[in-house]
Design goal:
Distance between the termini: 30 Å
Number of helices: 5
Number of strands: 8
Largest sheet: 5 strands, antiparallel
Shape: globular
Strand content: 25-35%
Strand order of the largest sheet: 1-5-4-3-2
Radius of gyration: 19 Å
Number of domains: 2
Length: about 190
């Protein structure tokens, strides 16, 4: 799915700790129609906490979620493209459904480097770029948005993020079944010389 540039989320109330990297989880489904029917039935139950809406022919189930800073957010669930999607960012989900935006993650050089070490058949796999994961927090620290939590430190003297980004690596993880359940492996790539 398209690897769009991450957005820095600036929560209200100055609580930059609550900034979260948008995440999308996609699970393969064998019967897309049947899974869509299950979600539709769940959304019709009296205690369903969210709202539904259509986006380009796909039903989106938007569910309010509190984040770490106490500010409300939305999780979106959708069935499309033979997957059950869970996303922490509605706009990111819409980008995926829209298609044709950016380069698919599987075609990026960073992902290919990590995928080289992942077996062909896995029960689960994950990919993270630490640069994307840490940039929002680093910028919040440097700008003083979390200064109340780190009194006595002048974080404005930190170097530009680009100066430390070269030391941050992409990471991969995967799970494969074994005789005792599952073997879960996480790793990061070595620094290139």
């Amino acid at each position: 799915y398209p690897a769009a540039a991450p957005r820095v989320v600036q929560p209200t109330g100055g609580n930059a700790i609550a900034a979260q990297q948008p995440a999308v989880i996609a699970l393969d489904v064998k019967d897309e129609k049947q899974m869509a029917e299950v979600l539709a039935r769940l959304s019709e139950t009296p205690n369903f906490p969210g709202e539904t809406r259509e986006f380009q022919g796909t039903t989106l189930y938007e569910i309010p979620t509190p984040n770490q800073g106490g500010q409300g957010g939305k999780m979106v669930i959708a069935v499309a493209k033979e997957h059950l999607f869970f996303a922490t960012d509605v706009k990111r989900m819409e980008e995926i459904l829209r298609g044709g935006v950016g380069t698919p993650l599987a075609e990026t050089e960073d992902y290919k480097k990590v995928a080289h070490f992942i077996p062909d058949e896995v029960a689960m796999l994950g990919f993270q770029d630490q640069r994307d994961q840490l940039k929002a927090m680093y910028e919040a620290l440097k700008s003083g948005q979390v200064s109340g939590q780190l009194q006595g430190f002048d974080l404005s003297t930190l170097p530009p993020f680009e100066d430390i980004a070269k030391y941050l690596r992409q990471t991969g993880s995967y799970a494969v079944p074994d005789e005792n359940g599952a073997l879960i492996v996480s790793f990061s790539l070595k620094m290139e010389k």
